[in-house]
Amino acid sequence: MSGFDQTHDETCLGSEAGRKRRVHVHSYGCQMNAYDSQRMADLLVPEGYSECTDAQDADLVILNTCHIREHAAEKVFSELGRLRALKERRAATGADLTIVVAGCVAQAEGEEIFRRQKAVDVIIGPQAYHRLPELLRKAGSGHRAADTEFPEEDKFDHLVAPRPARIRARGVGAFVTVQEGCDKFCSFCVVPYTRGAEVSRPVAAIVAEVERLACAGVREVTLLGQNVNAYHGTAERGGTASLAALCARLAKVEGIVRIRYTTSHPNDMTADLVAAHRDQPALMPYLHLPVQSGSDGVLAAMNRKHRRADYLDLVADIRRARNDIALSSDFIVGFPGETEEDFTDTLDLVETIGFASSFSFKYSPRPGTPGAELPHQVADDVKAVRLARLQACLERQRQAFNHATVGRTLDVLFEKKGRHDGQIAGKSPYLQAVQVDAGQELIGEVRPVEIVAAGPNSLFGRLARGAGGGAPPR
Ligand code: 5AD
Ligand code: SF4
């Protein structure tokens, strides 16, 4: 099967007592988790569930968890403590609450979660979530149920296509997973263990999903993968398609005006993908390209398999292809063995490149990864000071990037109502939030906007002259 399953099971889970049951999905971590959360909610619609935004109103709560750093995993256990109390209050009134732990904590900790938190009914890993209705049935008959397998079947073949109204409610931008898993084994990272080996979806399945989204009003797709630029899916006419070829194909889908992709590894930034940033107008000039560290010694210890100079050369190539491209990165400070000099190399790389926005973290040793076993772990107070210094520098660059757009006219894709009445909000090509005084009829359209001011988190602009009416520019 090339797309999502349109059929569903005849035994409805969510309407047993004649009353529609409600599900609340709480998504932690990355955008792929957000995508998976939507797919889980979609799977439950034919089962008779409707979605709600507050766990207090729900009959079923799914925590779609993140295991990337210790802090992320611990947040899940404190939330489970709160849900346990809610479940006990419900039980006192004869009502129930089903609790599901999904995602990477479920994958990494498995049935250990049952031991740590008795209130949990179902544990389901990221590769098995298409089996959620089946597991809920098992749990409904009084047995706790767990599935953290990497099944033979492809979960994407078993998902449910969301109805157009649900797509519309989610807005004009949508995420689409095109690649999953990772074979890189960076020594700090749990992803190869929790998400498994690298797999790419076939082009035809992605095109079908994007066509459905576009028909329901989506204008911008962000292609997701833990290593998205390693994408090598089966092409429509056989053979293998690269990410650049996939983007070119998706740009032909009627209604799709913008394409983004995340997250990329520098070693998979192939020449055709760099050229696509020059040649494909739909590909937005924003690239998240994590470098993690600016020190060759740390990069080697992280098993990144590239050097600082490779990254600098790559950025120079990309800028030759598209000189206005906005770059963003992830950084880890305090990796085992990182010296003050190594850290200064990172600051120096940041100054040399100039990032439009970035994410930065203290190294968090993850059980089962090689980094956690390394000698010379860095003390937490040292990590904290380095993180603060790095973040100050990255924040300065972010503000400078935003201020440099003041006075320019940028195409903005309008997405939703703005912060104040009479305002609408959208995104610039560089992924900046832009607020404009204009009517809601422009939501879903791209218009040139003159940027007049930059606040800490948004730009402010006015519709450029001649920007009213007409079809969105393609
Ligand atoms: N400690 C700190 N940060 C981490 N990341 C991944 N694993 C760890 C870890 N163990 C960061 C990396 C990655 C981002 C998604 O999370 O910077 O690119
Ligand atoms: Fe983790 Fe990304 Fe490295 Fe893969 S490439 S191991 S997902 S940091």
Indicate the topology.
Layout: E1 21-27, H1 31-44, E2 49-51, E3 60-65, H2 70-92, E4 98-102, H3 103-109, H4 112-116, E5 122-124, H5 132-140, E6 145-147, H6 164-170, E7 173-177, E8 179-180, H7 191-194, E9 199-200, H8 203-215, E10 220-224, E11 233-234, E12 240-241, H9 243-250, E13 258-262, H10 271-279, E14 286-288, H11 296-301, H12 308-321, E15 326-333, H13 340-353, E16 357-362, H14 370-373, H15 380-404, E17 409-417, E18 423-427, E19 433-437, E20 446-454, E21 459-463
Parallel strand pairs: 1-2, 1-3, 3-4, 4-5, 5-6, 7-10, 10-13, 14-15, 15-16, 19-21
Antiparallel strand pairs: 8-9, 11-12, 17-18, 17-20, 18-19, 20-21
Helix pairs in contact: 9-10, 13-15
The protein binds 5'-deoxyadenosine (5AD) and iron/sulfur cluster (SF4).
Structural class: alpha/beta
**Gyration radius, rounded:** 23 Å
Globular, elongated, flat, extended or rod-shaped: what is the shape? globular
| Average pLDDT over all residues | 93
Number of helices: 15
What is the CA–CA distance across the termini? 31 Å
- The oligomerization state is single chain
| Level-2 CATH architecture of one domain | 3-Layer(aba) Sandwich
Return the CATH class of one domain. Answer: Alpha Beta
Low-confidence stretches: 5-11, 468-474
Number of strands: 21
Biggest pleated sheet: 6 strands, parallel
List each distinct ligand once.
Answer: 5'-deoxyadenosine, iron/sulfur cluster
Q: Can you say what the CATH homologous superfamily of one domain is?
A: Methylthiotransferase, N-terminal domain
